Amino acid sequence: MKTEFTLAQLADPDIAVADKILRACVHCGFCTATCPTYVLLGDELDSPRGRIYLIKQMLEKDQAPTADVVKHIDRCLSCLSCMTTCPSGVHYMHLVDQARVRIEETFQRPLADRLLRAVLAYVLPRPREFRLAMTLARLGRPLKALLPATSASAGPAPGLLRRLRAMLDLAPGKLPAPGPSGGSVFPAQGARRGRVALLQGCAQAVLAPRINQAAINVLTRHGIEVVLVKDEQCCGALTHHMGQDADALAKARANVDAWTAEARRGGLDAILITTSGCGTVIKDYGHMLREDPQYAAPAATVSALAKDVSEYLAGFDLQPTSQHDDIVVAYHSACSLQHGQKITSIPKELLSKSGFVVKDIPESHLCCGSAGTYNILQPDIAMKLRDRKVANIATVRPNVIAAGNIGCMMQIASGTTVPVVHTVELLDWATGGPRPGLI
């Protein structure tokens, strides 16, 4: 793709990155076949190719985007399926991230939209506030019938009331007790083979602390000491994808400091993540902080240490204590794992070796509609994608659904009665841990 940035524009490191990405695009259109919003809506501007044109024009003209441009960028799930499909290696993730920052800095959203985004950006990364919000949502569920339901038509941008209804739809009936706090250390059983930091997470720590507990069980059972780093913060993924660059980078710097200090104190073989949406961003810290002279090198080191828990466990010879060949598992490959981190077969292989019958889901490349806050900000499209995903899952007639991302788990669970658990919960069960309570 031909670009027309001025030399002054190209002096900006972000524009230089955008220019390289744009020039790699050859307009082939392969991305349209695997883009969830294009598959649903059939609008060229709701495809990666169409959005690339909109972003190119916005950046080249150095102007505030129009409401129509914002609509189509907002509809992007950042599922990154287009990056898996693209034969030219277009790094769409870095391009759309930059577009969202530009929108956040130069576009005046309606007041209700600004308020909702501000609340989400403040509450979701803070477990204490998020727990309170979930408690209030549970108390407010009787009011749900008074709010307009989401619509599968995916028409105009949803209003505030439909978004509030989407939040209530996703809120769990009862919250589990909190898990272990930062500063906790879990010693290896038997001879120590390694030492890792485990990301505590934000929403997951409130909604499903059992996931990290299962990871701790598996890891310590196989000789790995696990530490929950005391000064760790939210990974920054949520505000990063909302274009709030300063907040996301501040969180990234704080985590780089915390994990670097822990590595110096006791050594770290890896930083493990059980929420793949977080993992994709942490693995990108090196890029996000590349222009920061103080943080560029340590951020790159942190990114190199970051691993999904399944990625790390693949290096171990897990020893199942019992067979579960009567359990059919539909494995949902989270977009952030399969497209963002290129981890596709490892979780399925781990489950199969642990004795489960693992089934692939048709259209496994398509997003479930969760995508961070997408199922709140774009509930109509999200619901249609969820229903499509659930229908595809039903064709393999599973006993349980496994996934590696809490957002996907909550989204899918809202549309099916089949239990949805994290992959590591099944691995814990297979190697001597408790049967997941949802099964």
UniProtKB/TrEMBL annotation:
<keyword id="KW-0813">Transport</keyword>
<keyword id="KW-0004">4Fe-4S</keyword>
<feature type="domain" description="4Fe-4S ferredoxin-type">
    <location>
        <begin position="13"/>
        <end position="45"/>
    </location>
</feature>
<feature type="domain" description="4Fe-4S ferredoxin-type">
    <location>
        <begin position="67"/>
        <end position="96"/>
    </location>
</feature>
<keyword id="KW-0249">Electron transport</keyword>
<dbReference type="InterPro" id="IPR012257">
    <property type="entry name" value="Glc_ox_4Fe-4S"/>
</dbReference>
<dbReference type="InterPro" id="IPR004017">
    <property type="entry name" value="Cys_rich_dom"/>
</dbReference>
<keyword id="KW-0479">Metal-binding</keyword>
<dbReference type="Pfam" id="PF02754">
    <property type="entry name" value="CCG"/>
</dbReference>
<dbReference type="InterPro" id="IPR017896">
    <property type="entry name" value="4Fe4S_Fe-S-bd"/>
</dbReference>
<protein>
    <recommendedName>
        <fullName>Glycolate oxidase iron-sulfur subunit</fullName>
        <ecNumber>1.1.99.14</ecNumber>
    </recommendedName>
</protein>
<keyword id="KW-0411">Iron-sulfur</keyword>
<dbReference type="InterPro" id="IPR009051">
    <property type="entry name" value="Helical_ferredxn"/>
</dbReference>
<keyword id="KW-0560">Oxidoreductase</keyword>
<dbReference type="InterPro" id="IPR017900">
    <property type="entry name" value="4Fe4S_Fe_S_CS"/>
</dbReference>
<dbReference type="GO" id="GO:0019154">
    <property type="term" value="F:glycolate dehydrogenase activity"/>
</dbReference>
<comment type="function">
    <text>Component of a complex that catalyzes the oxidation of glycolate to glyoxylate.</text>
</comment>
<dbReference type="Pfam" id="PF13183">
    <property type="entry name" value="Fer4_8"/>
</dbReference>
<keyword id="KW-0677">Repeat</keyword>
<keyword id="KW-0408">Iron</keyword>
